[in-house]
Amino acid sequence: MFLSVHRCPWTMPAADLSPAGAGGHAHGAGSEHEEHGELVPWWRDRALALPVASGLLWVTGLLLEWADQETAALIAHALGLAAGAWTFTPSALRRLVVGRGRARLGVGLLMTIAATGAVLLGHVGEAAALAFLFSIAETLEDRAMDRAQRGLRALLSLIPETARVSRLSGEEVIPAADVRELDILVVGAGDRVATDGVVVTGRSWLDTSAITGESIPVEVGPGDAVLAGSVNGSGTLRFEATSDGRDNSLTKIVHLVEQAHATKGERARLADRIARPLVPLVLIAAALTAGFGFLIGDPGTWVERALVVLVAASPCALAIAVPVTVISAIGSASKLGVVIKSGAAFEQLGTIRTVAFDKTGTLTRNQPQVVAVEPAAGHTHDSVLAVAAALEATSTHPLAEAITAATPSGPEASEVQELPGHGLTGVVDGRQVRVGSPRWVDPKTLGERATAMAGEGMSIIVVEVDGQIAGVIGIRDELRPEAAEAIAALHDQGIDTLMLTGDNALTAQAIATQAGIKSVHAEQLPADKTDHIRSSADQAPTAMIGDGINDAPALASATVGIAMGVTGSAAAVESADVAFTGTDLRLIPDALAHARRGRKIMTSNIALALAIIVVLFPLALFGVLGLAAVVLVHEVAEVVVIGNGLRAARNTAMPPTSRTSAASEAVEVVPA
Fold first, then answer.
1. How would CATH label the architecture of 369-476?
2. What is the H or E stretch that residue 161 is in?
3. What CATH architecture applies to the domain 160-244?
4. For the residues of 40-70, what is the DSSP string, one character each?
5. Where in the chain is the domain with CATH 2.70.150.10?
6. Residue 75: CB atoms within 10 Å
7. Strand partners of residue 354
8. Half-sphere exposure (CA, 13 Å, Cβ side) for 549?
9. Superfamily of the domain at 338-365+480-593
């Protein structure tokens, strides 16, 4: 299922990068480096058997040479050469005859030619050293790539193998892959959820840390959504599946991660442009070197140097410099709940200098709550809420849900009528009650207070009882508690922030003040958001973060589009380059810092790989270094490149930042 990554895949023609054409070890799912999906210890890795045997035989030959056992040493070196060459020579030769008549050249061919030439010149020991070092470096590289991808494949293990389904005849255990939408599933204490759904009965809490990266368990009850891969707490839940077992939020994450290496970024393309022509150029350079020897009458010396040139200029380190870094970094990011769709997206993420936020559902919870109640004389906080909740109990409006949630119990209303665009009327405890907006119900003596509450970003509900004002209720979609900390962390990194929202300027200003965002564009339509993003991206690399369908055009227009919550709007996720499986905004500065670090590692890897070629080539050409020395330096340097690339897998959390400093910054509000 996951991408197969092959060592030194540069072939001719360049377009053929299929697994069959790569000529290296095939890895990914089913690799010899893995056992039941886990990376096996090196001493049990069958792929290491031949390289290790080659090394032992080569060392044995050296010891026998030291003991003046020339014949035995030659046999040991020959066997070591055969063991090492078996890992790359057959595939290199196959690439010359397969591919519908198109010869494909690879680094394995260069090594095969170099080893063959060394044998013909009588340097069997050096040929054995080349075969051992090349084969062991290739196998270690394969293990490194498997290790980098192991975290991605581990996502699939979060789906249980079986699920309990409630049937008319009773409960039945079926394979999780056979679960269908609308099935009723039963999840016991400690069980893992097989697919997405909505709770029908039962109350419990779910550990979603492996899916969303959020460490705090989420309480769920009837009507609440559950995510595939979550671990149930102490209660028993029955939930209705909203997706099939093979097509849920977790498999979508895996699908997105599988695309991570399909699109190469700027640095990967740079490595391609340099590495692809190097194989034929190296062959040409070696041929010219040998030809020069024949012209001057010293073919033996210059043919040997030509073989050394083949090894010195091989672009193996350059070929692996970017892929191992990208896969390590993307796999590591997925463990944080950050799904990066491509290598290009990862590299661009490291260039971001401006971050634009949608408000509702991104900076805020998208769950309006009662945040203030101002009772009139003769009424109390609780009585105002109770009367309003009695009428709102029959309404499905989000503000109605906020009021009823704030009052668990209260009187019942009768003769309730809803006037669209205004509010509700009804009878509560024999009294006539009106609940609605200030445009319909005049707040009268509480007018100034209602205006002040609106200035704080609240939606105002006025409650009237028997023609007299009972009180005003302020409802607001509250800022996420970690938002100010996340914004301040972005500012500390030198990244500018702005807000794009369709809400009015007063509400936008209130939220921006709390969050510490410097610039706000309020009352924006989707087209307006897109225009702002394009304008910002023209000035500096810009990321757009949103979660709704109306954010999709802006996400697609940004340098990097980031969707909050893979289970949110499908349009937003498909339009984005990066998806956060959770909703913790502190992931944003962490992800940007992670990407910047990865870009630096890529740059250093490319520079190191080019330096290897630039330094070794003249040393090989003028006979300063022999074959054994060049092979040793070349392969050790390649291992260093791999190790450097694997450093991209490290995640470094950003230090906490004070909310106070973020909230104190001046805010500029720009209405449409």
1. 3-Layer(aba) Sandwich (3.40)
2. none
3. Distorted Sandwich (2.70)
4. PPGGG-GGGHHHHHHHHHHHHHHHHHHTT-H
5. 160-244
6. 16
7. 496, 542
8. 1
9. HAD superfamily/HAD-like (3.40.50.1000)
Residues of the chain with CATH 3.40.1110.10: 369-476
Q: Which two tokens stand for residue 473?
A: 């209720």
Bridge partner residues of 339 (DSSP): 579
H or E segment and range at residue 338? strand 338-340
Confirm whether 547 is a catalytic residue.
no
Cα–Cα distance measured from residue 598 to residue 595, given in angstroms and rounded to the nearest whole number: 5
346 close to 329: Cβ distance less than 8 angstroms = yes
Tokens 């499986």 — which residue?
581
- Measured in whole angstroms, the distance separating CA 604 from the mean position of its chain's CA atoms is 22
Query: Which residues 6+ apart lie within 8 Å of 94 measured at CB?
Result: 23
Catalytic one of 358, 503, 547, 584: 358
The partner residues of 206 in beta bridges, in order of sequence, read: 218, 232
What residues does CATH 3.40.50.1000 cover in the chain? 338-365+480-593
Return the DSSP state at 2. P
Cα-based angle 344, 348, 349 (whole degrees, multiple of 5): 115
Instruction: Spell out the residues 6+ positions from residue 422 whose beta carbon is closer than 8 angstroms to its own.
Output: 436, 437, 439, 440
DSSP 374: E
Report d(CA 232, CA 238) in Å as an integer. 11
10-residue stretch averages of pLDDT, the chain, 672 residues long: 33 29 38 56 73 89 89 92 87 68 59 72 74 72 58 64 90 92 92 93 80 62 88 88 85 58 50 63 81 82 80 68 74 78 81 90 81 91 91 77 82 82 84 89 90 83 92 88 92 93 78 88 80 90 79 80 64 68 84 90 86 84 79 76 80 43 37 38
Looking at residue 590, its amino acid is: D
Q: Residue 123 burial by CB count (10 A; 0-12/13-18/19+): exposed, middle or buried?
A: buried
- CA-wise closest residue to 320 among 275, 257, 282, 283: 275
Instruction: Provide DSSP, 199-220.
Output: EEE--EEEE-HHHH---S-EEE
> Which residues lie closer than 8 Å to 629 by C-beta, 6 or more apart?
none
What Rg, from alpha-carbon coordinates, does the chain have? 33
For the chain, how far is it from start to end, CA to CA, in angstroms? Answer: 47
Shortest CA distance to 157 belongs to which of 241, 257, 37, 260? 37
Residue 547: both structure tokens together = 């979660």
Phi, psi for residue 668 in degrees, rounded to 5: -105, 120
Q: Is 560 left (phi over 0), alpha (psi -120 to 50) or beta?
A: beta
